[in-house]
Amino acid sequence: MAKDGIKKPIHKRWWFWLIVVLFCLVVIGNLTGGSGNKSAENTTESSAPSSDDTTTDDDDSGNTSSDDTDSESDSAESSSSESSSKADVPTEYLSALDKAESYAKDMNMSKQAVYEQLTSEYGEKFSAQAAQYAIDHLTDVDWNANALAKARSYQSDMSMSPEAIRDQLTSDSGEKFTPDEANYAIQHLNDK
Q: How many C-beta atoms lie closer than 10 Å to residue 72's C-beta?
C-alpha cells in the first residue's frame, strides 16, 4: 500500500509491467515461430518436382532419342509411384524408418536391437507396426558389417576375447545379433 492509505493503480505496479512484457514476448515468439515454419514448408513444397514435368533430350540431328525418352519416362514413373507410395505411408512409419536408419548406420546396432529401441517405452515408443515397417524398409544396411564394427569396438575398448565378444554380440542382454552375424564378425575380427 502507498502512503496515506491510498492504493497504487495496477498499471503503476512493477509486477504488472513484468507480466505485460512476458505476454508480449510469448505473442511475438508465437507469431514469428509460426510464420517461419510455414515458409519452410512452402519452400519444400515449391522445390519438389512435379510428376507432370517431363523432358526429352534431342540428339545432334534434332531427333528425340527413343532410348533417352524411355529411360526418362521410366524414371519419372518410378519417382511418381515412389512419391505417391510415400504419401500413403503414415508419418509415424516414416519417422520410425528415419530413426531406424540412424541406429543401424550410426550406432552399428543389430536388426533386433533397432526394433526393440524403436518400440521400447524407454526408447522411441513407436508402435510395433511402425517399427516393423522401418525394419522391413531398411535398405543398404550390412548387418554383418555392423556386427564386425561392434566386435572390433569390444576388442579395442574392452580387450575382450573372441569368445566373450561372440557371447556379447548374440546375447539377449547384449547386442542381439544373429549367430551367423556374430560368426562373421569373429572370423573377420583381425582383418585389416
A: 15
